[in-house]
Amino acid sequence: MTAYLVGAGPGDRGLLTLRAAELIARADVILYDLLIGADALSGARADAELIYVGKQGGGEQVPQDATNTLLLEHARSGRTVVRLKGGDPFVFGRGGEEALALRAAGIPFEVVPGITAGLAAPAYAGLPVTQREMSSAVAFVTGHENPAKPETALDWPALARFPGTLVFYMGVGSLERIATRLVEGGRSADEPVAIVERGTLPGQRTTLATLATVAKRAAEAGVRAPAITVVGAVAALPEQLAWLEARPLHGTRVAVTRARAQAGPLAARLRELGAEVVEAPAIRTRSLRAELPRLTGSDLIVVSSPNGAHELFAALERSGRDARALAGHRVAALGPGTARALREHGVIADVVPARAVAEGMIEALEALPIARALIVRAREGRDALPDALRERGVEVVVLALYETVAERLDAGTLAAAAAADWITFTSASTVRFLAEAAGGAVPEGPRLASIGPATSAALREHGREPDLEADPHTPDGLVDALVNAG
Fold first, then answer.
1. Tell me, what's the pLDDT at 172?
2. Which residues are part of the catalytic machinery?
């Protein structure tokens, strides 16, 4: 049996270490605290036991003794136990206390360091804690000492004389006291101070001040924990080096209604541009496991979506075939995403229309001689393309390989989507099923972003006009439209 004291990093999912992710995926039991990132537990097994043992100033408290007891009990039972802590377990995280308890109980343990907020939050704010000719030393200090202590354990005069940068954790409620002590100890009242709230997260915000003004500035700005406070000459550098808060969608909350299996790339791109993403998958796809009709004699095979591409090859595999069965057939993909999905299966599309809608495909096929066409799509797909081909005298076979159904959304997810700045819709079904989940209407508060004409038409059917429509009608086009909308 081994217990693992694991640092989850400062919050950005990209800063979770590979070792931490590996152990989270293996754990039978995870004891986690308040400051882990929102996605840190997403890699846990479905049957893992997740136990909250966090502490919050003025809020819910789980005593450290109780946490130690849980850690020992679960480790002794032979289960794989991960104690998951925000930042680094040995930097103001009580990891040392937990390690001592495990050692006293004779339980082997492993410590997995994490990126501590005192380094990450300043870095994400464009603030190097050391800088040649400005600061060659850095000290990490708790701004919130144990209230049970009879007197402070901090040597304030020594901190005031420290020849470098001071980084305070958990000091939002003590800013006036910290500034006063440092000035009394000899630091200049004009020394720069930077407070970084929600460091590394989409809602990150930096407040700049001096020791003389920091308490007032923080109150005026409504600064709240969690935050890191940096004191020293380098604290003026975010004015020149800020990068996270300069991203085009920083501070913008975007709800993504696409199916969970397909939402990842869109959500990732939005996060890269600074958005806070609310994943509210209104739909999911369900395979119909239909059998393929004969392919011989078809001049054209049209695949209407990435899901259709994957389902097509699943159907080929069920029949004992693979991509070679498509040899000799012209293949058309409705949009670059569908073309990418086909390439994953070893097929390069012959036709990819400039506009990723049925009307774009109709235009792209106008000059091609076609006698028989097979259209692979969802059960509820539009009939614009098969109708247009039939009008040309083409024999059309429509093969529905999957259907789109509602995904259950809990009240918390619906509330988060309704509080977003934007809700993105990538199909008519995302409009229909989100409206159903929200009580029959598309939420009124957020602005609405549509991927294309069919989706916009569905919004209008629900009494709403989209605030933007992507052009091109692709996920990348949707992201670009959001950026341009400001």
1. 93
2. 33, 55, 170
